[in-house]
Specification:
The chain is an alpha+beta fold and 301 residues long. The protein folds into two domains: 117 residues, Proliferating Cell Nuclear Antigen (Box); 111 residues, Proliferating Cell Nuclear Antigen. It is built from six helices and 18 strands. The strands form three sheets. It has a nine-stranded antiparallel β-sheet with strand order 6-2-3-4-18-17-16-10-14. Strands 5-1-7-8-9 form a five-stranded antiparallel β-sheet. The chain has a four-stranded antiparallel β-sheet with strand order 13-12-11-15. A hairpin with a 3-residue loop joins β11 and β12. α1 packs across α2. The radius of gyration is 22 Å and the shape is elongated.
Length: 301
């Protein structure tokens, strides 16, 4: 049975009530009047902009496709939080044994127009299909139109192509990121790590990852055979290996394979391990930062 991690189920509390009223009181207005005034101002801004509340521009549409591919490999639906700081998504897969955390900072965009934080819930599988149509040298403009409850996607190259995708109902809060004191940290070449996983996948549906201060080990055991890959700390594939004590856990091969598919072979994958605890797997995709948490398989009875 694949174990689940209770901390995955925690949610971030909503922002404390009263902040809006407090700002109103600081401006000399009662809380209720301040809220009404702010609402009227926001509605006026929406009318002035034709209902468009968010506008983002990415010069390389194909790059954004690769970012979404890294997310949709784990989940089919999700909610982006968009603000002046950029774009953020954190969500769990339907089985609740895996989590993806995605950050695309404002520096990745040529334009970020988002006065307030907005939640954009989408069918990511449908979004990925549209982004797969991106052509070389095309830019991508993303516009949130809450009036129509749709997200506009405009590809600009030799011609302009306009798509609109419907919004879904946004989740009330982001899942809480697990706080784990890991025992081992491994930074390894992505191409080498993916080769190890492919070897393991030939023999078993589960992969054992382990590390100590001298080496990183990948194991697989199945009816058709066994595998053990040992990579020493001084190997050219290891950028960094730190371990206070031996750490080992077993994980579903399919999830690990999906989590690394979008990672370039020349990138560095950062793995963090603790005995029989969720693994954290992270890498950078251009300016984007992507991290995953995956619950281990725990043998019972």
């Amino acid at each position: 049975m694949v174990g689940r991690v209770r901390t995955f189920r925690r949610v971030v509390r909503r922002r404390r009530r009263g902040q809006r009223g407090q700002r109103g009181r600081e401006n000399g207005l009662p809380g209720a009047e301040a809220a009404v005034l702010k609402s009227n101002i926001n509605q006026s801004k929406v009318r002035d902009r034709g209902g468009i509340l968010v506008e983002l521009v990415i010069q390389d549409a194909k790059y954004f496709k690769s970012c979404v591919d890294a997310i949709v490999s784990i989940v089919n639906e999700g909610t982006f939080e968009v603000s002046a700081a950029g774009m953020h998504l954190r969500t769990m897969d339907p089985s609740q044994i895996a989590m993806v955390d995605f950050i695309l900072p404002k520096e990745a965009f040529s334009k970020v127009d988002a006065e307030e934080k907005r939640s954009i819930a989408l069918n990511l599988a449908d979004l990925a299909k549209i982004l797969a149509r991106a052509r070389p040298d095309e830019s991508l403009t993303i516009k949130l139109d809450e009036k129509e409850a749709k997200l506009g996607l405009q590809f600009v190259g030799e011609s302009k192509r306009h798509f609109k995708v419907p919004l879904l109902e946004a989740n009330a809060a982001l899942p809480h990121e697990p706080k784990i004191a890991y025992d081992a940290s491994i930074k390894i070449n992505a191409g080498a790590f993916k080769d190890m996983l492919r070897d393991a996948g030939l023999l078993s549906s589960h992969v054992v990852l382990q590390a100590d201060d001298s080496e990183f080990v990948v194991e697989a055991h199945g009816d058709s055979g066994d595998l053990r890959v040992e990579t020493k700390k001084d190997s050219k594939h290891i950028a960094e290996l730190k371990s206070g004590t031996k750490a080992m856990a077993m994980f579903p091969f399919e999830y690990l394979d999906d989590m690394t598919k979008a990672c370039p072979d020349d990138a560095i994958v950062h793995l963090e391990l603790k005995n029989d605890s969720p693994v954290r797997l992270a890498y950078e995709l251009g300016k984007a930062k992507i991290s995953y948490f995956l619950a281990p398989r725990v043998e019972t009875g």
